[in-house]
Amino acid sequence: MNDHPSPTALEPSIAARLAEKICGTTADQVTPEALQWAVTAVVDTLGVTYLGAPESCTTLLLDTPGIGDAPGPALVFGTARRVSMLDAALINGTAAHALDYDDVSGTVGGHPSAPMVAPLFAVAEAERRSGRDLLVSFMVGVEVQHRIARGVNFHHYAKGWHPTATLGVFGATAAVGHLLELDRQQVAVALAIAASFAAGIKANFGTMTKPLHVGHTARSGLLAALLAQRGYTANASAIEHKQGFLEVFNGRGNYDISKMFRDFDAPIGLDSTLGIKQFPCCGSTHPAVTMMLRLVKEEGLNADDAVKIEILAQRNRLPHTNNPDPRSGLEAKFSIQYATARALVDGAVRLEHFEGQAHLDPRVRALMSITETREHPDMPVDGPNEFGSEVIVTTRDGRRLSRRVEQLVGRGPGNPMSREELREKFIDCAQRVVMPRRCDALFESLMGLESVDDIALLSRDLEVH
Questions:
Q1: In the beta sheet, which residues pair with residue 306?
Q2: What is the CATH number of the domain that holds 345?
Q3: DSSP SS3 for 82
Q4: Within the chain, which residues score under 50 in pLDDT?
Q5: Which site among 101, 230, 309, 334 is 20 to 30 Å from 241 CA-CA?
Q6: Within this chain, do residues 171 and 317 fall inside the same structural domain, yes or no?
C-alpha cells in the first residue's frame, strides 16, 4: 500500500499553500484592526490563564512527575516557577481553558486564542522576541485556524470533535512556526505533523480533560514546529490525503477545501464571529444577559421595578440553558434564567455570582420566579450558530420594556468590549492569584504589549511570588 500517493493535480498540498501564507506574512500585511484585536485577545487570554492557574486541572498537572520538573525559560502563570517551553505550553494552555472563560469563534466552533497564547508566550520568552512579533504571529495562527474551520465546519463540530483542540493545533503550529521564522518547507512539515497531533472529543466536556485538550494542543503545536525546525519529516499531503486529516476527521463529502482558500491573497483581518466572553457563564446566555444590561443602563431599570420577565431565545440556545432552578454554581452558569436575573439585580455578572451559595440569592430567586422562558418565534434557525435573544420586562407602572439582538457571540469586532470592560474582566480573573493592588498595573503593562521590546523582560513582571 502506498501511503504517499502521487498528487492528482499539479497544485501544491494544503500544508504547502498555507505555509506560503504563513511565511509570507509580515507586520504590514496585518490590518490595524486585526493587530488591535490581537492585543485584546492576548490580554484577555492571559487574564483567564491567571484565573485557571489554581484550578485542580492545572495544579494536578504540576504535581504529575515529569511535568515542570526541569527548569527552563518559560513562566508558569500564577507562579514564579519557570519550566521548559513545552511544559509551559501544556500547563498554561490548560489553565487558560480551565473555566471556559476564554474567547470564542463561531466559525471555529470553539475558543481560538487559548491554544496559541501559551506556546507563543513561551517561545517569545525563550527567544527574547518583541510584543509586536508575538501579536503578528498570533494573528497568523488565527488566520490559519479559521481557514481550516471554514472548510470542515459544522460537520466537524457536530460529529463530536472539540474544534478548540482539533483545529487549534493548526493555529498553534502556524503561529509558533511564524514566530520561529521557519521556512516554507519547515512550516508545511510542521502542519503535517500537527495533523497527527489533532485530538479532542466532546465526550469529555464537563471534565478536567476538556481544558487538558487545550493544554495538549498548545504543547503539540509547539512540538510540531520545533520538530520541523530540526528536520523531522511528515507527509506533505497529510491534511488532504485519503487517510489524512480531512477524510479521517470529517469523511468524504463532508468538507470543502475551496472554502479554506477563499480570498487567500487578502491581508490578514478579522473573522466576524470572534468574540471575547464578557460574562463567566455559558455563551448561549450572553445575548439575554446583554439585553437585560441594556435595559438597566438605558431605561434605568432596577429589580424592584419588574413584575414579569420574558426571555425569548433563539431555539438552539435553550436546550442546555433552560434551567429555572440551578442547584449549584456550575448549574447556574448554564441557567439563562439565573444569569439574566442576576444582571438585573447587580447590573453585572461576575465570577463571584457563580461561587459558594450565590445561586441561592433570594433577590435573584424572586426574579426567576416571575420569569418565563421560551423559543423566539421569528429568530433565524437556518444553522447551528445563531446566538440571539429578546428580553421583555413588564414594570409595576405598566410599561413593557424590551431589547433584542439576533446575533451576539461574545463581544467581537463589531461590538468590542471597552477598555474599562476588559479591565474589569482581567482584574476579576487575575486577582485570584495576583495581589489586587498589582492587577491594574499588570493590565496596563499588558495593554502596551505592542511596544514591548523583549517579552522575557515583561514576563518578570508577571511572576507571582
A1: 395
A2: 3.30.1330.120
A3: strand
A4: 1-9
A5: 230
A6: no
Enclosing domain of residue 360: 283-405
In terms of Cα–Cα distance, which of 265, 247, 246 is closest to 167? Answer: 246
Residue 179 contacts residue 133 (beta carbons within 8 Å)? yes
Q: What's residue 410's pLDDT?
A: 83
- DSSP 8-class letter at 111: -
Specify the pTM: 0.92
Judge if 100 and 222 occupy the same domain.
yes
* pLDDT tens string 213-239: 999 999 999 999 999 999 999 999 999
Domain co-membership, 188 together with 303? no
219 and 300 in a common domain? no
When divided into structural domains, the chain yields a total of 2
Beta carbons within 8 Å of 230's beta carbon, 6+ residues apart: none
Residue carrying C-alpha cell 503550529: 173
Q: Which pLDDT score, from 0 to 100, does residue 206 have?
A: 82
Same domain, 344 and 380: yes
pLDDT at 415: 86
Residues in CB range of 399: below 8 A, 6 or more apart: none
Whether the Cβ atoms of residue 51 and residue 184 lie closer than 8 Å to each other: no
